[in-house]
Structures are given as structure tokens and as C-alpha cells.
Amino acid sequence: MDDILTVNGLCKSFGGIAAVQDISMRIPRGKIVSLIGPNGAGKTSVFNLLTGFYEKDAGTIGFEGAPLEGLKAYDYVKRGIVRTFQNVRLYSAMSVLDNVMVGNQYRIRYSPLDIVFNTRRKRRVEEESRTAALALLEELGLSHLAYERCDALSYGQQKKLEIVRAMASAPKLLLLDEPAAGLNPLESEELSVFVAHLIDRGFTILLIEHDISLVMSISDYVYVMDHGRMLSEGMPEQVQRDPAVIEAYIGKRGMQDVIAGKSP
Ligand SMILES: Nc1ncnc2c1ncn2[C@@H]1O[C@H](COP(=O)(O)OP(=O)(O)OP(=O)(O)O)[C@@H](O)[C@H]1O
């Protein structure tokens, strides 16, 4: 199997809190892998370690066969690793199109002189960026919103737009941190179709998500963390039958109740 990312023995502590303890995982190219677990399990800390927001205490992270060491945040995007955040981080006063163009900015190459003199080269590069951004919006069914201000969009549309902006930089690995958080059931369903479409386009995704029915319906493989450790892993149907997961993740509730979205 062609793994795009391999993680071995990853550790990170904050004072007395061992947020990430001996975590190992792998993500095959073109697959969607999910990382789930109760609040405070350490999922976001793993994302922060994978994207250089946190420095690891121990362990190795390999991306496309080479170690991810000593890179600046910007270098992760250049290497093809892009993430979204739990909370929407769009430029709310800018248009949808401009936000997507921000996403592919790192691919734009022109000099400060090109900017000062507004050269033909600068205008051409910007036009290419605009065309690419519009094509992406079209493909993902959001082109009718291209000239809307972001703050005029529904929350569900903003969550999708965040993913589109991340995709605009043509990532090899997309890390999605709770894309369904705050969505109603209909928006959540739309989002799962949207994410499934990204997989059809050949993207590789690592997903953190509390919406278990979404996770179980779209994941190829699931990792479960609890208290900083890896509690379980496997295909969705294996994980949801694992007694350790049922006990730690959902307590006395049945997994079917969680999947059905019933309250505790
Ligand atoms: N920068 C930090 N400083 C101190 N403690 C931190 C920091 N980041 C994470 N932690 C702690 O590490 C533990 C794991 O937190 P993390 O946010 O990774 O969990 P999570 O599984 O993503 O939780 P949630 O599902 O609630 O987002 C928690 O106890 C948290 O308080």
C-alpha cells in the first residue's frame, strides 16, 4: 500500500498532561482516514504536530517517504499538507472568490516590481488564479456564490468554503478538523456528499469529527484515541463493535444510539 503519511511513536506533553502518547498511524494515498475520540483525547494535538503548530517531544512523522522535520508552517503547504480549523477562519468581508484565491496564493509567482508596475505578467498570473478558483467553485457546486461576501453565507456554506480554500492550494494531504461541527443534520449530510466527492477527485484526507454517523459512512479506516493514547483502529464496522471503544468513547450508550444521533 502506498502510504502518504506514516507516524510512529508520536509524543507530546504539556506540563503534566500527556496529550499525545506513543501514537502511530498511517494514511494510504487516496483514502479517507478518520481520527475520533472523546473531548480532550488528543486529536487536535495530533493535527498540530502533523502541521508544525506544535513541536513533538518524540516520534517520527514521514511524508511521502521523507521525514517532516524542522519545517516552517509555510513549508508544510509547499510540501502539500493543508489543514482546516474547528472554527471558521475565512476573511468575512471578502468575496467567496477572493477567499479561494487566497488559498492558491502560494502558487502565484511574481516580484514586488510586478506589483508596483502592475505588469502584464502580474495581470496574467492573477487571471490564471481567478480562473482556477472559479473552476474549483464550479466543480464543487458553489460557483453561484462566487461574488457573495463570506459573511452573507450560511454556516454550512462557510464550512464548505473553508475546505474549498484549502483545496485551492492543491494539497496532497488534506486535514479536516471537525468540518461538521455546528451544522444541522441536513448540512451535515450535504457535507458528507461533498467530502466523498473530494475522495473521488483523488484527495487524501485525515478527518477529525465528532459526528460519528458521518465518520462511519465515509471513512476507509478509523483510529480512536482516548486520554492521549491510541485505543483502537480498524475498518469502521470493526471499530464500532470494539468493546473498548464503546466503553471509553460512549460510556453506557450503545454505538447504534450514537450513530443514530440520540442524546445521552
Ligand atoms: N497548547 C496547549 N497547552 C496546554 N494543554 C494543551 C494544549 N493543547 C492541548 N492541550 C491539552 O491536551 C489534551 C488534548 O487536547 P486536544 O485539544 O488535542 O484534544 P481533542 O481530542 O482535540 O479534544 P476536542 O475533541 O475537545 O477538540 C487536553 O487535556 C488539552 O487541554
UniProtKB/TrEMBL annotation:
<feature type="domain" description="ABC transporter">
    <location>
        <begin position="5"/>
        <end position="252"/>
    </location>
</feature>
<dbReference type="GO" id="GO:0015808">
    <property type="term" value="P:L-alanine transport"/>
</dbReference>
<keyword id="KW-0547">Nucleotide-binding</keyword>
<dbReference type="InterPro" id="IPR051120">
    <property type="entry name" value="ABC_AA/LPS_Transport"/>
</dbReference>
<dbReference type="GO" id="GO:0005524">
    <property type="term" value="F:ATP binding"/>
</dbReference>
<keyword id="KW-0067">ATP-binding</keyword>
<dbReference type="GO" id="GO:0005304">
    <property type="term" value="F:L-valine transmembrane transporter activity"/>
</dbReference>
<dbReference type="GO" id="GO:0015192">
    <property type="term" value="F:L-phenylalanine transmembrane transporter activity"/>
</dbReference>
<dbReference type="GO" id="GO:0015188">
    <property type="term" value="F:L-isoleucine transmembrane transporter activity"/>
</dbReference>
<dbReference type="Pfam" id="PF00005">
    <property type="entry name" value="ABC_tran"/>
</dbReference>
<keyword id="KW-0813">Transport</keyword>
<dbReference type="InterPro" id="IPR017871">
    <property type="entry name" value="ABC_transporter-like_CS"/>
</dbReference>
<dbReference type="InterPro" id="IPR032823">
    <property type="entry name" value="BCA_ABC_TP_C"/>
</dbReference>
<dbReference type="GO" id="GO:1903806">
    <property type="term" value="P:L-isoleucine import across plasma membrane"/>
</dbReference>
<dbReference type="InterPro" id="IPR003439">
    <property type="entry name" value="ABC_transporter-like_ATP-bd"/>
</dbReference>
<dbReference type="GO" id="GO:1903805">
    <property type="term" value="P:L-valine import across plasma membrane"/>
</dbReference>
<protein>
    <submittedName>
        <fullName>ABC transporter ATP-binding protein</fullName>
    </submittedName>
</protein>
<dbReference type="InterPro" id="IPR027417">
    <property type="entry name" value="P-loop_NTPase"/>
</dbReference>
<dbReference type="GO" id="GO:0016887">
    <property type="term" value="F:ATP hydrolysis activity"/>
</dbReference>
<dbReference type="InterPro" id="IPR003593">
    <property type="entry name" value="AAA+_ATPase"/>
</dbReference>
<dbReference type="GO" id="GO:0042941">
    <property type="term" value="P:D-alanine transmembrane transport"/>
</dbReference>
<dbReference type="GO" id="GO:0005886">
    <property type="term" value="C:plasma membrane"/>
</dbReference>
<dbReference type="Pfam" id="PF12399">
    <property type="entry name" value="BCA_ABC_TP_C"/>
</dbReference>
